[in-house]
Amino acid sequence: MLNWIGIAAINMAIAVALGAFGAHGLKNMVSAQQLEWWQTATLYLFVHALGLLLVGVLIRFKSATQTTAWLLQIGIVIFAGSLYAMTLGAPRWFGSITPIGGILMITGWLWLAVSTFRLGQVKT
Q1: pLDDT digits (tens, 9 = 90+) for 17-39
Q2: What DSSP string describes 50-102?
Q3: Where are the bilayer-spanning segments (predicted)?
Q4: Is residue 56 within 8 Å of residue 7, measured between CB atoms?
Q5: Best CA proximity match to 83, nearest among 67, 97, 66
Q6: Dihedral (C-alpha) 22, 23, 27, 30: value to the nearest 10 degrees?
Q7: Would you list the domain boundaries of the chain?
Q8: pLDDT of residue 119
Q9: 122 burial via Cβ count (<10 Å: 0-12, 13-18, 19+)
Q10: Which residues of the chain carry a pLDDT beneath 50?
Q11: Which residues of 82-107 are buried (b: 16+ CB within 10 A; e: fewer)?
């Protein structure tokens, strides 16, 4: 079993580093639109890394499945990765894969909902 808490922490460290690089290193090197792509990628990376941290804890308590974590992680890589790549010069058509990452992240959150209901371990 993968350590999703550790993977989430690595994602968060990467988000902070890439956010700082975007704010300081790219500011005068890319267009305003490219900088916006970078900021969007960093925001989604950070938010979903925090979510992945929660999912990692839930997995440890057997209240979620690894499928949720995989969907979120692959979604993060595709969504944020494609935006980072375009900012750094990848062709614009590369952005056509960005929504695939978004769909995987949405599916991950929905899978969390479905799996927690199925596991019957959601306590209110």
Answers
A1: 999 999 999 988 999 999 999 99
A2: HHHHHHHHHHHTTSS-HHHHHHHHHHHHHHHHHHHHHHTT--GGGGGGHHHHH
A3: 42-61, 68-87, 93-114
A4: yes
A5: 97
A6: 30
A7: 4-119
A8: 78
A9: exposed
A10: 121-122
A11: bbbbbbeeeeeeeeeebeebeebbeb
